[in-house]
């Protein structure tokens, strides 16, 4: 069973500490990941200034290597950001705790996150973040709940689909060359290769649908709920 935690932190623990201190500055990113090299990501930004001033403010932030404006959303701007560095909370969540950040939104000088953890006891590990890292993040937990059987996990996947994709990613199934086969993945879940392949196919279809929907929303504004 997966545990979902919604909490808020100061930007210094995540990204955009300088940008986040600007009056009425808002930003939203859909997912976060730690990596060895630069990470390029799209942000939905809002604020009292225009796109050029917003991009300049992003560029001036110490966590940003490069920023640019992609499109006008009507009520804000879609900006592309390449991170120079990220705060300690990112690797703590994604590497140490194997968590998935579903939503991260910056408003009022604070990041609000919705994060999925593989186990219930991971919540206590999250609460030890400041003690373990020595970082004063101002971490405040707002909501905790667990998924019911069959409930959708991040990105619209079922829990079984999400577990399969996550294990495939961690096992090197998506690497070139591959470091794991469908047989390896199927054995890990004690199911047939055909069942594993079908699970991944459905998961990839949902992920692709979500990516296309996000791109359409960026070009045309928010899409109607389906």
UniProtKB/TrEMBL annotation:
Keywords: Transcription, Transcription regulation. InterPro entries: BAT_GAF/HTH-assoc, HTH_bacterioopsin. Residues 157-208 form the HTH bat-type domain. The keyword Nucleotide-binding does not apply. Signal peptide: none annotated. Residues 5-127 form the Bacterioopsin transcriptional activator GAF and HTH associated domain. It holds the Pfam family HTH_10. PANTHER family: DIMETHYL SULFOXIDE REDUCTASE TRANSCRIPTIONAL ACTIVATOR (PTHR34236:SF1). This is Helix-turn-helix domain-containing protein. The lineage of its organism: Archaea, Methanobacteriati, Methanobacteriota, Stenosarchaea group, Halobacteria.
